[in-house]
Amino acid sequence: MSSERCKRVWEHARAARKWPLWRLPRWLVVFIGLVTAVYVIAIAVAIAVGPAPKSLRNLWLFGALLIGMALTVELTKRAGENAGLIKDVYGVWELPIAILLPPVYGLVAPVFQFTLTQLRIRRVPLHRRVFSAAVLGLSNASASLVFHAITGQGFGTPPAVGSPAWLWLLAVAAAALALWTVNTSLLIPAFKGSDPTVTLRELYLARESVQNDIAELCVAVLVTLGIAVTPLTILFAFPFVTLLQRSFRHVHLVAASRIDTKTGLLNAGTWERESATEVARAVRTHTPLAVALIDIDHFKAVNDSFGHLAGDRALRSVARALSIPLREYDLVGRFGGEEFALLLPQAKALDAYRIAERIRTHIGSMPITVSDDTDAEPVRLSISIGVAALGARWDSSSGAQLTELLAAADGALYQAKRSGRNQVCVVTENATFGASGHAAAENGTGGTQGTPEAAGPVTEVIQAP
């Protein structure tokens, strides 16, 4: 019996080592464990020193709000839960729990919410649900502390609007802001650790995201006020939750229509539309701009050797790496297959060359994991880049500058591949420079050399050594 028990313990230990949690950076694993530990301690403290949760009114109100939360989960199930950062409307129910009930209720409510979400909507790695529950529970607790610090009401006070009413309402609004701030502050490290390319602007500061967050907090404040007057407000709050849910879903669908699903970059149509606008602005204001086309060298060999799923994983790795050296206002998109497109505003030919060379060097030195097998050797890929930069002879009346730039960049890409791949070729209107002409091009001197056959009119080519 003892040996059998040891065998089971060993099997469980082996299974635990394969948890997705251990694939995260070590500091992020520590951070998740620390937040979860603080959450568990907070629950224990709330139970030990807080008012006993034995009031029938509190239990009835808590149950009613949990029912509203469960119905919202069902709404989300019908529409589907998006991957990545999940924008939801549960704050409409969480804030009343945090404000109108003792802190222990706000701490344990997320356990119910995320357990139901895991069972009813989509199963994700368990550590994500546990961490989300911990973050939300601590956010609810902070909202409760802020509210009671402002109003001076005791934690065991029955739910009611205090006097003066305007101060009570402002206290609820301050608590809602504290809930959002703590929640955001704890989630940002987790998202940055999981995906270093993600930006705060993408997560929280986009206009639609800010508008929806403000709308959710305002509705949550009003629902809290209404429930403090009469719990029947819960029945009238649900239609507003439905409308907010649809609004969030609309934002997600609009964002999804712009994004290539395999790489997370802009799709070809969106990249072309937004790039055309930038090119027209550069032509109108006579400011520099460059376009780059990037192609992964011998990518077919990855698909043939490891399979198309491994190829998709490699594409995603390259897509994430592309965004790291870029500036915030640069545009990067998937142009098709294993080809990507960059738009580099305010970049002259030499600036674009340096950016492209940093990208080429970074991707060339980056090990790419294409298998879930931890013992599998990572692969290394190289890329060829063709860059076309706007010159002095802009024709603002043609309206086809982007098409001409793409044609020139495609010619430069062809030249880079024909010259041995894993290099950068830059095209302008002036002359053609080889690898040895790089310094001369930087100083504005040097003789011309042959132009690539597919580059069109007179071009300048700067090739990486």
Task: Give a nutshell description of this structure.
The chain has 465 residues and is α+β, with helices and mostly antiparallel strands.
Structural commentary:
The chain has helices spanning 2-17, 26-49, 56-79, 91-100, 103-120, 126-151, 165-194, 200-205, 207-229, 233-258, 268-285, 299-306, 308-323, 349-364, 401-418, 438-443; strands at residues 289-296, 331-336, 339-345, 383-389, 424-427. With 465 residues, the protein is α+β, with helices and mostly antiparallel strands. The chain has a five-stranded mixed beta sheet with strand order 2-3-1-4-5. Helix 2 packs across helix 6 (126-151) and helix 3 (56-79) runs antiparallel to helix 4 (91-100). The longest helix is centred in the middle third of the chain and has 30 residues, at 165-194. The radius of gyration is 28 Å and the shape is elongated.
The strands making up the biggest β-sheet line up spatially as 2-3-1-4-5
Q: Give the number of DSSP strands.
A: 5
* Overall pLDDT metric: 79
Strand content of the residues, in percent? 5-15%
Shape: elongated
Order of helices and strands: HHHHHHHHHHHEHHEEHEHEH
Low-confidence region ranges = 431-465
Give the count of helical stretches.
16
Helix amount, in percent? Answer: 55-70%
The radius of gyration computed from the alpha-carbon positions, rounded to a whole number of angstroms, is 28 Å
Please report the distance between the alpha carbons of the first and last residues. 68 Å
Task: Describe the sheet with the most strands.
Answer: 5 strands, mixed
User: Which class best fits the helix and strand makeup?
Assistant: alpha+beta
